[in-house]
Amino acid sequence: MQRPAPQDFRRVLSSMCTEPHPAARDAAERFLATNPGDPATYRRVAELEDRAVSLLGEVAGLSDPHGYVTSGGTEANVQAVRAARNRARDRDGADLSRTYNVVAPESVHFSVHKAADVLGVELRTVPVDDEHRADADAVRAAADGDTALVVGVAGTTEYGRVDPIPALAEAAREVGALVHVDAAWGGFALPFTDFAWNFDHADVDTMTIDPHKLGRAAVPAGGFLARERETMDALAVDTPYLETTSQATLTGTRSGAGVASAAAAMEALWPDGYRREFESSMADARWLARAFEARGFDAASPELPLVAARLPEDLFGSLREAGWRISRTAGGDLRVVCMPHVTRETLSAFLADLDAPA
Ligand code: 0PR
User: Fold this and answer.
1) Which atom of ligand 1 is nearest to the CA of 219?
2) Where a domain ends, among 269, 304, 323?
3) CB 132 near ligand 1, within 6 Å
4) Which residue, 20, 278, 300, 293, is CA-closest to 158?
5) Which atom from ligand 1 is nearest to the alpha carbon of 12?
6) Which residues lie across from 196 on neighbouring strands?
7) Tens digit of pLDDT for each residue in 303-314?
8) Are residue 337 and residue 203 in the same domain, yes or no?
């Protein structure tokens, strides 16, 4: 029987996954059967996780980071909401009848909706401005004494926008809430920009930053970072029969492949490799946005390597039929995510299909 093969990445234009770096692929294969959920037994992978967290801290401007390699951005966002709710409860005397809320821009990833659902907190989403960025005044107006967490996105899923993190952090502090930055996708590009987004730039408590997106690790490898030890303590449960006696992760058995590949990818690429990839993807994104504009399609000027453009419905459909793996924003714009596998050659072929008379 023929061995099944995955699809290749050549026509994948709207995904946040990409080809893992060769060192990350190799590490994933070697550590396939290890479980960082039991760090005392699987010590080698536990050491790699410490290294991965320390490198994630470097990327995110945090010199003494706490955190772990999650199954993805969803788990990291769930944990951020969970930690904030638990810390608010501890502060307020563990009143389980009180409903806390999370304030976030409407551009927040749907994983935060899942988090609110499973954790029994109220999610208050507020409108974004004309540039698809969080409006700090709207966040301030929605926050109150029951706000456990304010979320900002650094690299939004649909438009690649960066929210005003320092202003959001100020709004959070006014009501005593914690601050979470979702840099799941943007985190490995933002160090090479002038945006204020990280732990060093603002009073940020927790962050999602995913090696399995722009970090070029194998799936599954998300990242959860916390400034304070207390945040991890707020997530920990007792694990009496393991060699280690508590666990702060959401999943139990975890992928050693993800952890090892995250460490390997960052060892190989931080910072120069990521910088080169960012510069080339950013140049491609700007080039593509201009190409859309030249054809009369509105395209927002990219801030990170993601281009959103207004394409007619039938054209979008025929490009999909031509085999392009493309998706749209909720507002109907085509989104092209310039991941490392998306080359100028690929984009030229895409434009050639777009120009071809139907
Ligand atoms: N936060 C942000 C800002 C995200 O963009 C995403 C995922 C997440 C959190 C959740 O991360 P996980 O999917 O790792 O749990 N954004 C992509 C999206 O929803 C995920 C994706 C990736 C979708 C590859 C399709 C795909 O082919 O579009």
Assistant:
1) 14
2) 269
3) no
4) 300
5) 27
6) none
7) 999 999 999 999
8) no
